[in-house]
Amino acid sequence: MDCVFCEIIAGKKDCFKIYEDENVLAFLDINPVVEGHTLVMPKRHVERLEDLSDEEAVFVLRAIKRVVKLLLKKLQADGYNVVVNAGRIAGQEILHLHFHVFPRKSGDGGLFTPKEIDLERVYRKIMD
Asked: Hey, which residues are catalytic here?
């Protein structure tokens, strides 16, 4: 497999999974820019949003909504950003469609600087 996300979905690589259903997986980003930075993706390998069927798009958006609610509650976030980078020109590094969910808090330093964040601690905070 050439896609690291497909390997994670197949259980061949570890992740801090915070949501999963039949069609979608969500896990903490290994290079977070804020506490709780999460990736949400369809399990089927597609590169871009327009490659999803309409039904899959509904599944993904529903999962994003569930992840947002979980992160807001567990991390006491004040707001959030949801971002998708489509194509290399837009900053997509892994060519498997994924959405970044950024829970936001006052004073979090913004989205453009990776931070040293203990993923295991954040995972426990979300999953407890």
From this structure: 98
